[in-house]
Amino acid sequence: MFLKVQMPWNVIIPADSLDAKGLMLKKAIVIRLMDEFACKKAAKDLGYLMAVTALESIGEGRVRQNTGDVLFPVVFTGITFKMFRGEIQQGVVHKVLKHGVFLRCGPVQNIYLSHVKMPDYHYVPGESGMFMNDKHSKIEKDVVIRFIVIGTKWMEAEREFQALVSLEGDYLGPVS
Amino acid sequence: MSGEEEENAADLKIGEEFLKAKCLMNCEVALILEHKYEQLQQMSDDPMNQVSQVFEKSLQYVKRFSRYKNPDAVRQVREILSRYQLAEFELCVLGNLCPETVEEAIAMVPSIKTKGRAHDDDAIERMLNDLSLIKKFE
Question: RNA polymerase Rpb4/RPC9 core domain: from which residue to which, for each copy (chain B) (predicted)?
Answer without folding.
Answer: 16-138
